[in-house]
Amino acid sequence: MNETQSRDLMTELAASLFARGFSVGSAGNISMRVEDGYLISPTNSSLGRLDPARISKLDQDFRHVGGDAPSKEVFMHRAFYVTRADAGAIVHLHSTLATAVACLPDVNLENPIPPLTPYFVMRIGRKMPVIPYFRPGDPAMEPAIRAAAPDARAVLLANHGPVVSGKTLLDAVYAAEELEEAAKLFLTLRGHSPRVLTPEQVNDLLETFG
Ligand code: 13P
Asked: Nearest-CA neighbor of 88 among 193, 145, 173, 13?
């Protein structure tokens, strides 16, 4: 995919997430690797109305080299790219139900959502920790994410929202959507004792689908 196609795909998928309420206002930011650096949504932009030509361009060292001023959370994306060689794209949303889980004090902060469904496991993996609260845009978040990311494709930022990586932009978007569905199931089933997938079933999924 060339850079023009990447810009068009990012615009299309961001608009789709916005249209379905996964982000509102100017919340959320999205990035992807391209041949000579990264594309990232501009700060204060609505995911519903990205302009492909104005998407921010960063060089390989995450310096702003083109387009509008980048998201104030470049460091959040960088934390995944530098710790996960397999990360080709990052999606950060304030999607309601994943954020609701990130507000609960009495969950397992190492891994709040159990393996309820195969697609949650296939897209997010074994582990998705909750990172302590930091003000949006606070660079102090970066070391906390860097510490977690080697073992986790996604994290929940306490009282803020999910950050999800994927091999491609489509993978990251699909994973962010699956996470929101898993959060919905988790909250629906709170107070019940749902059957969860066994460790053997989880291993089988990850060996089969990666
Ligand atoms: P930006 O508009 O700077 O990307 O910030 C949006 C956001 O989601 C903050 O958490």
From this structure: 173
Per residue in 8-65, pLDDT (tens digit) is: 999 999 999 999 999 999 999 999 999 999 999 999 999 999 999 999 999 999 999 9
pLDDT tens, residue by residue, 66-111: 999 999 999 999 999 999 999 999 999 999 999 999 999 999 999 9
State whether the beta carbon of 44 lies less than 6 angstroms from ligand 1.
yes
In whole angstroms, give the CA distance from residue 182 to residue 203. 18
Decide: 43 in ligand 1 pocket, CB within 6 A.
Answer: yes
Q: How many residues does the chain have?
A: 210
> For ligand 1, what atom is nearest to the CA of residue 161?
10
H or E, element range at 39: strand 37-40
Question: Could you give the domains of the chain?
Answer: 3-209 (3.40.225.10)
Q: Do 29 and 17 meet the contact criterion of CB atoms below 8 Å apart? A: no
Mutation to probe ligand 1, out of 72, 78, 163 (largest number of atoms < 8 A from CB):
72
Query: What DSSP state is assigned to residue 48?
Result: G
Residue of 73, 142, 178, 180 with catalytic role: 73
Structural tokens at position 172: 């990251």
What's the confidence (pLDDT) of residue 210?
A: 82
CA 176 to chain centre: 6
| Atom number in ligand 1 closest to CA 29 | 4
The reply to whether 35 belongs to the active site is: no
